[in-house]
Design a protein that fits this description.
This protein has 319 residues and is of the alpha/beta class. It has 13 helices and twelve strands. It starts with a strand and ends with a helix.
Length: 319
């Protein structure tokens, strides 16, 4: 059974693997999306991470539709404020299902669209007014009375964060029963510790993986899988000598189906210094595999040898 971890600041328990809803709307059909979320719960993943801007503003409502099929108290939900989707894009979000169905069948077009999505460098303001407005919108979209965690979403060094008034707002929202905990979810500018303003009760969530672990420990880490898997599998395929060394050290073929992915997922929390991980996929089978890798991990000695190999690769690639 998948372990439940306690986030010590707010004394909140969540599943050790959470499902990230950033890519939920990439599945073009609702039946697929509901099956995906159902697979998470069926395999013990009961924490769901979303945001106002995910899925062109539609991911919260989609997660809300799923939440109505389960016991609300059996799951935890984290959402975020501060990065929103403009009115035009949000209106387009309602029609994204047929567009995504087309993109799924046209990889070249999908890559072209992705290249055109430049990051917005306009400074953002994170204050109590923005948090209150976004929280009410999130509760309405999700169709719930409360969210378990409300995060400041992706602050950067160029942004303005009204830490004191946000702290007062978070506590007020907790007393009103709208949230159970709060914190910061940080994707870039990781040299700045934005979560420190809300310590010790705040929840910290950062991007990191085996090859680029966070600069400091956090409660939750996202982005643990794709980059590590793509980089390591490509290196092993390109270098027969390296693959042989890994095979001998692990006592298993790292490029066999499921071996490398299982090792990455099972070791990511410890290797990044985080209590839990977030995982995202559009394939229910991979969601089940992620839960299994963490609930029934490989032998501890094998994981230790794997992490030594990863560290050797990191040092070699940095040289």
């Amino acid at each position: 059974m998948l372990e439940r971890i306690e986030l010590q600041g707010p004394a909140l328990k969540i599943s050790a693997v959470g499902f990230g809803c950033g890519g939920l709307m990439q599945s073009p059909f609702r039946k697929e999306r509901m099956a995906l979320l159902g697979s998470a719960v069926d395999n013990g993943i009961t924490h769901f991470d979303t945001a106002r801007m995910y899925g062109l503003g539609m991911a919260e409502a989609e997660l809300g539709a799923f939440l109505r099929t389960v016991n609300r108290d059996s799951v935890t939900v984290g959402t975020k404020f501060g990065i929103d989707v403009g009115g035009a894009a949000r209106r387009l979000g309602r029609f994204q299902a047929p567009a995504r169905a087309v993109l799924r069948k046209a990889p070249a077009l999908r890559r072209a669209v992705k290249r055109q999505q430049e990051p917005d460098q306009t400074p953002r303001v994170y204050d109590a007014a923005a948090a209150a407005r976004s929280l009410d919108q999130s509760l309405a979209a999700l169709g719930v009375d409360y969210v378990d965690i409300l995060f400041v979403h992706g602050p950067r060094p160029l942004d303005t964060i009204a830490g004191e008034e946000l702290g007062e707002f978070f506590e007020r929202a907790r007393q009103q029963g709208k949230i159970r905990a709060w914190g910061v979810s940080q994707d870039e500018g990781l040299e700045t510790d934005f979560a420190a303003a809300f310590a010790p009760r705040g929840v910290s969530q950062v991007r990191g993986d085996l090859l680029d672990p966070p600069l400091r420990p956090a409660d939750l880490v996202f982005g643990v899988f794709n980059r590590s898997y793509t980089t390591l599998s490509a290196a092993l395929r390109a270098d027969a000598r390296l693959a042989g060394h890994w095979r001998e050290t692990l006592g298993a073929e790292p490029l066999s189906a499921g071996v490398l992915s299982r090792l990455i997922l099972a070791s990511s929390a410890a290797a990044t210094g985080c209590r839990g991980i977030l995982y995202s996929s559009t394939d229910p089978r991979r969601v089940a595999d992620a839960a299994s890798a963490c609930s029934s991990p490989p032998d501890a000695e094998v994981l230790a040898r794997f992490l030594v190999l990863v560290e050797q690769y990191r040092r070699g690639s940095a040289a």
